[in-house]
Amino acid sequence: MEKKEIIEKFKLSENDTGSVQVQVALLTERINHLNEHLKDHPNDNHSRRGLLQLVGKRKGFLIYLRDRDIEAYRKLIKELNIRGVK
Predict the structure, then answer these.
(1) Domains of the chain, residue spans
(2) What are the CA-CA distances from residue 36 to residues 19, 40, 75 (Å)?
(3) Dihedral sign, CA of 52, 82, 5, 35?
(4) What's the chain look like in SS3?
């Protein structure tokens, strides 16, 4: 999906581009893209490090959302088909 499509799908209001849900969705798309890249280039350690940083950032956003709004958190992880955080 393109960035604009992701923002349109997950935004909470008309001008929303930075809510937690939008940021998690954008990070998930980038993580999925890097996963595909690493399947073709398994020795690309620079991209692997970037992937781990993105995963950590997404985990922080998910913990924040889980603590603030559990229903939105559950809906988001179901929609993005990702595992929840502990």
Answers:
(1) 3-80
(2) 26, 7, 25
(3) positive
(4) CCHHHHHHHHCCCCCCCCCHHHHHHHHHHHHHHHHHHHHHCCCCHHHHHHHHHHHHHHHHHHHHHHHHCHHHHHHHHHHHCCCCCC
Q: Which CATH architecture has domain 3-80?
A: Orthogonal Bundle (1.10)
The reported pTM is 0.92
Residue 17, both tokens: 């581009």
Instruction: Report how far Cα 23 is from the mean position of its chain's Cα atoms.
Output: 6
The 10s digit of each residue's pLDDT in 5-40 is 999 999 999 998 899 999 999 999 999 999 999 999
Of the chain, the end-to-end C-alpha distance in Å amounts to 28
Can you tell me which residue has the tokens 């620079």? 46
